[in-house]
Each structure stands twice: as C-alpha cells, then as structure tokens.
Specification:
With 497 residues, the protein is α/β, with parallel strands linked by helices. The protein has helices at 20-30, 52-63, 74-77, 81-93, 109-142, 168-182, 190-200, 214-222, 240-245, 271-282, 284-287, 346-362, 365-373, 377-407, 413-462, 469-479; strands spanning 2-8, 36-42, 68-71, 97-100, 155-158, 163-166, 229-232, 235-236, 253-254, 261-264, 302-304, 310-318, 321-327, 343-345, 480-485, 492-496. Helix 4 (81-93) runs antiparallel to helix 5. The protein is elongated and about 100 Å long.
Length: 497
C-alpha cells in the first residue's frame, strides 16, 4: 500500500506551494491517483518528530502495511537533518521506498549525500526565516515602535502610531501604588496592604476584576515601562515554540539588560521614584513583617558578624529579671545554624543605631563619603560575564554561517552578508556596552541611595520634635540595609542603602 504524507506548520499555512491541499494534490498526481492511505499533520512544526500523523505513518510502516511513502519535499518530513536521516533509515529497514515529489533521491552514496545536503539547507532556511522575522521586529523597535499591544496597565495601544498612550484613569492608580509604596508614612503596609486597599476601594483591575492580588501590584512596581522606557527583547524565548509543540513546559528567561531595546513611551512615574521602589522591594519582606507581641526597632535588620545568623528581638530572663534582647540563637527543630550565643540589650543597640542615623540626617555631606566608600563590584560583575558570554555566542554564530556557505552554492549570499553585518554590529555594541556597565550601574545605585536619603531626611525634619516609635522604625528601614555586630561587641557595622 502507498502512503501519502503531508505537513504544514502554522507559519507556512499561506506560503505558496506549501499549503496542505497543494502538497496532497501533488503527491496524488505523482502516483497517478492510485489507491493510497493519507497521513497528515496540520499546524505542527517540522522541528519536532513527535507528530500525530507521522506517528501513525511510522506505526503503519512497522506493521508492514506500507511499502511506499510519497512526500512533497524532505522538509515536509522534518526540518531537522538528523530526523530526516533517522526516518529514512527506519523506512529502508522495512524495505519501504521513500519518494519525494520535489526531487528524486537514488539509494546510492551520491543520492544520500544529496539528501543530506537538502536537509541541511532546509534546516538553514528555517533558521533564516526565524532570523528575518526577529530582525524585522528588532528594526521596528529601534525605530521607536512598540511591537504589539501587550495589555500594559496604565496605557492604551495606538495601533496607527504603534505606541502606547496614557490611560489617565489607570495611570492614577499606578501613581497611587508607587506613592503608597515609597512613602515612609504610608497607612498601608507593604504590597499586600496596597492590594487590599485597592480591592476595598472597588477599583477594577486591568481585566475588570474585583480583587487585586499582591503579585499584580508587585509586577506594576517592577515594571520599568512606567518610567517612559518600554523594553523589547527582554525575554529569551528561543526554542519555546518547539517545546510547546512537543508538549514541554516553556520557560522564558530574562536576557542581560544590555540586550534590551528601549522604546520611548509617555512617562507615568519619575525614574527616581522607580529606583526607590526597586530598593524597597528587595527589603519588603523584612520591612513589612507581621507584627509580633513586642515591638523591636531593628527587627529583621541585624546579623551576627561571627556566625552570620540573623538576630531577632526576644524577651528573656537574666538573673531573675525580665529583659529584652537581640539574639542569634535558633532553637527551632531543623535549624542548620544554632547560633554562637551573640546577644545584646535592645535598648542599648537601638540607641547606638538611632544616634548614627540622626548624625547622617543632620549631616547630609556624610552620605557622599559613605557612597564613595561602598564596593559595587558585585553588582555589575554578573552582567559583565553575561556580555562576555554573548560575545562568544555571536562569534560562534558567524562561524556557523561561514560553514553553511562553504557547504552549498544554493544559499543566498545577500542574506548571509546582511546577517554577518548585523552580527558584527552586535559584537561592537556589546563591546562598547561592556566598558559602560560599571559606570551606569554605579550611577544608578548612587541616584537611588541619594533619593531615599532625601525622602527620609525630609520626613525626619517634619517630625523631628515629635517622633514616635513607628516614625523611627520607618526612617531606619528607609536607610539601613543591614547591621552586623560581633559577639565581642568590639565592632558594629551599619550598612546603608
């Protein structure tokens, strides 16, 4: 029995000559319309071998009911050379002839070589289509166009101008979220408190829902687009389409920031406020921890310099007298580090730290000296390594293109030349960016630190003569990143943002 196999992927539906009906008609014409069995896959990429129609065909071959297979072209069988050769070998072991409408392949070494070359070219053309599509999108992004409406809350999409325009009603909510989160005197504690407040006010979500989830508020606070710089090429989705077709879970990863392409859109949030929010998010868990029975000014900020355990506030008895202390002891079951026994009176440490903070607030010039003394190498080191990796990846890509050119005379050298030029430009941009990353990150960090100090200082001055416990706690959490204290009490290290 003769089998006819045809396949078309989603992106090839409208390509002339590759439509499913056309493939089937050409195959039937090839066998002069004799009796046959039809196997087909519609809307499935040729990069995966696990396809319903192809699986049925392979089962029929193994059962012995097929002795000849007609297919329009090798790339209909598979887009990957390895899969083409594997299927060809599988069919030949069952003495099944594999015939293509678009070219005859003799069972000779020469025929097999030609078959392999066609497969390699088909695989290359598939990658070329991907590169062209991606390149076109990137060019539009570099021209300042937004690549489609992705439902960015606070904006509407202008399809004619290919950009976002502010939706004032939603923009008010975005500003409210950032203002509540960055204001040290906010009545709503943390992201969850803001989400509950929006829900209680009856403000509809982007999809007209009634409940604001904390994760939605968090995503808004993390979205750099509200500063007027909308990023494209942020996620690496390479292979996601194939994984999805294969039934695998897709997992997008964030590209290094130097690869992002920023498109200017109207600004809703000042960049300074956005940077403050990013710093506060890093500390949100400890800043807005659940209230305990007793309040501790430095809760969640202290670590033992000897064993690196966190030090928490607790009530204890010393010589029959109840006292409040910060301790690094971990008595719960399963604690990896039980602590080294570092303790200190809460009122003693609270007083030392508060005096230190007040000294900073009354003498702003000290902040400059502090910022200059911080080591920021850990911040940009990871990004520099990512750039190095991308440069090497780019070089390997150019080498693969040169290898393909050497293999075949059928490849369009114009396309190859364009891709080589794009890769060379990309490598130059990466190299230039490599030398700028350190300064940019350092400047951003200093800008955020200075802004946070300014807000805390203004708040302190406005309530200087009537500060409550909560006021002091709020100011400290705006400025202090970590406090390290040694067991011998010889050294106290207060690290600011």
């Amino acid at each position: 029995m003769i089998a006819v196999y045809a396949r078309v992927s989603t992106e090839e539906q409208n390509v002339k000559g590759y439509g499913l009906r056309n493939q089937i008609d050409e195959c039937i014409k090839k066998i002069n319309n004799v009796e046959h069995l039809l196997y087909k896959d519609e809307g499935i990429t040729g990069e995966v071998i696990d396809r319903p129609g192809l699986n049925k065909l392979r089962e029929s071959v193994q059962s012995g009911i097929i002795d000849e297979i007609i297919c329009y072209d090798p790339d209909r069988l598979s887009r990957k050379l390895m899969h083409q050769l594997m299927l060809d070998e599988e069919f030949r072991k069952k003495d099944v002839k594999l015939i293509f409408v678009n070219g005859e392949y003799a069972q000779t070494p020469e025929g097999q070589l030609f078959f392999s070359m066609r497969g390699a070219i088909a695989e290359f053309e598939k990658e070329k289509i991907k590169q062209r599509t991606k390149g076109g999108k990137m060019r539009k992004a570099r021209e300042g166009k937004v690549l489609g409406a992705y439902g960015l809350y606070g904006y509407d999409f202008d399809r004619d101008k290919k950009t976002y325009v502010i939706n004032e009603e939603q923009a008010k909510i975005v500003r409210m979220i950032f203002n509540y989160f960055t204001d040290p005197n906010t009545p709503f504690k943390g992201i969850n408190g803001i989400a509950n407040h929006l829900t209680n006010m009856g403000i509809p979500t982007a999809k007209n829902g009634k409940v604001w989830h904390r994760q939605v508020v968090r995503q808004i606070l993390l979205n750099i687009s509200y500063t007027g710089r909308h990023p494209h090429n942020r996620y690496d989705s390479e292979g996601d389409y194939v994984r999805k077709q294969s039934g695998e879970t897709t997992k997008q990863t964030i590209r290094p920031q130097e690869e992002w392409i920023f498109v200017e859109i109207p600004t809703i949030i000042p960049e300074e406020q956005f940077l403050i929010a990013q710093e506060l998010i890093k500390q949100s868990r400890r800043r807005f921890a659940k209230d305990s029975l007793n309040q501790y000014l430095l809760s969640g900020l202290i670590r033992c310099k000897n064993c690196n355990n966190t030090m928490v506030g607790m009530k204890s008895k010393w010589w029959g007298k109840e006292v409040y202390i910060y301790s690094d002891k971990k008595n719960y079951s399963g604690a990896v580090n039980k602590g080294c026994g570092n303790t200190i009176y809460t009122n003693k440490l609270d007083e030392i730290v508060w005096e230190h903070i007040v000294d900073f607030l009354n003498n702003p010039e000290k902040l400059v000296d502090y910022n200059q003394s911080q080591k920021v190498s850990n911040i940009f080191e990871g990004e520099l390594l990512s750039i190095e990796k991308e440069i090497q990846k780019n070089k390997k890509g150019r080498q693969r293109l040169l290898s393909l050119v050497a293999m075949s005379d059928e490849i369009d050298l114009t396309d190859i030349r364009e891709q080589m030029e794009e890769m060379a430009l990309k490598e130059k941009n990466l190299s230039d960016r490599y030398s700028e990353v350190q300064k940019e990150l350092a400047a951003s960090k200093q800008n955020a630190n200075s802004s946070m100090f300014k807000i805390a200082a203004e708040y302190y001055m406005s309530k200087k003569d009537n500060l409550t416990f909560e006021d002091k706690k709020s100011i400290i959490r705006q400025l202090v990143k970590q406090i390290y204290i040694s067991k011998e009490k010889e050294e106290l290290d207060i690290q600011l943002f």
